[in-house]
User: Which sequence fits this backbone?
């Protein structure tokens, strides 16, 4: 059965096709008018203005270009033929991602910046989870729930993409408040004792508030593990300002922000979590997910053994066929490029 994964994209055809036809008609009239104007000078400048305009070539060129656009829109709408069900083992875990948006997270000691690396690592985590619910809490001087627990990971990804320098209006770092928000989100969600509940903290750990110990005790009492992902380097780097330049202290010296690895390791140890720091091999999120959240002894290499055995579900996988539409569209664009409706008249 032929269908589309995103029918909403097809509505663009109702706008693009009539619009392109109208533009083609306008271009046709403009070209004809210009050629008529040039014909006045034909006798005096015969060699320069003796052109032939082929209406048929023009129509073919415009038709091929329009069809190419139509096929591209169809490809974007995710055409698919049939589907199959694949068994997927699920962990049924609840995971709240806590992301630091304070100014120090915009330092560039890891490229392109700490905040961009953190967002990339969260996406790595989303690529690993199956059947888990994921939520997001963000914080600087205050905190709020950016995304409640959900199994729609595309929504989580959409929220992450919306984050920028001006998202948090309150300066500072309130890690203890952010962790309390994450704990509350987990406690308010329905769950059973067979499910694991985890917080994954993405921060440089520079400031952590004055009530952190009480927050960690609360996490332990609620059987919530806190896994930390240290973003930054021990050497540190300056904090860029949105207006340009770098943040300075009261004496005018440039502030250097450094990764506080010790506090992050302490947070994880007190809550039976896993602590990682950004590394070159890029396997940090795998260790946090499998060894920390799923409590596996090691990270399995076999895809069929990676996920926890607490449940099994069947996932519908569609056979998407956007490739042929894209290929034909490129061919049509290539052919239309070399069609010349106007050419010099051969003598």
Assistant:
């Amino acid at each position: 059965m032929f269908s589309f994964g995103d029918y909403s994209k097809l509505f663009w055809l109702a706008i693009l096709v009539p619009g392109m036809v109208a533009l083609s008609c306008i271009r046709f009239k403009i070209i004809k008018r210009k050629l008529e104007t040039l014909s006045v000078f034909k006798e005096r400048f015969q060699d320069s203005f003796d052109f032939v305009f082929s209406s048929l070539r023009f129509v073919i060129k415009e038709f091929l270009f329009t069809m190419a656009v139509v096929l591209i829109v169809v490809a974007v709408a995710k055409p698919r033929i049939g589907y199959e069900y694949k068994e997927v083992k699920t962990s049924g875990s609840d995971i709240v991602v806590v992301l630091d948006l304070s100014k120090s997270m915009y330092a560039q000691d890891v490229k392109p910046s700490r905040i961009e690396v953190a967002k990339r690592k969260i996406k790595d985590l989303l690529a690993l989870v199956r059947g888990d619910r994921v939520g997001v809490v963000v914080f600087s001087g205050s905190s709020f729930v950016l995304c409640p627990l959900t199994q729609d990971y595309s929504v989580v990804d959409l929220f992450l993409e919306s984050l920028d320098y001006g998202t948090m209006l309150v300066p500072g770092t309130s890690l203890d408040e952010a962790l309390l928000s994450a704990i509350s989100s987990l406690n308010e969600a329905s769950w059973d004792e067979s499910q694991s509940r985890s917080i994954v903290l993405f921060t440089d750990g520079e400031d952590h508030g004055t009530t952190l110990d009480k927050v960690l005790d609360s996490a332990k009492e609620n059987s919530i593990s806190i896994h930390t992902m240290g973003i930054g380097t021990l050497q540190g780097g300056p904090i860029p300002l949105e207006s340009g330049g770098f943040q300075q202290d009261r004496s005018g010296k440039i502030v250097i922000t450094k990764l506080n690895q010790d506090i992050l390791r302490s947070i994880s140890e007190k809550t039976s979590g896993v602590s990682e720091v950004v590394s070159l091999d890029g396997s940090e999120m795998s260790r946090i997910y499998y060894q920390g959240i799923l409590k596996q002894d090691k990270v399995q290499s076999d895809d069929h053994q990676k996920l926890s055995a607490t449940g099994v579900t069947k996932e519908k996988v569609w056979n998407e066929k956007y490739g042929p539409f894209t290929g034909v569209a490129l061919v049509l664009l290539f052919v239309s490029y070399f069609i010349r409706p106007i050419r010099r008249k051969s003598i």
User: Anything to note?
Assistant: The chain has a mean pLDDT of 83. The radius of gyration is 29 Å. The domain at 92-309 is CATH 3.40.50.410 (Rossmann fold). The CA atoms of residues 157 and 321 lie 24 Å apart.
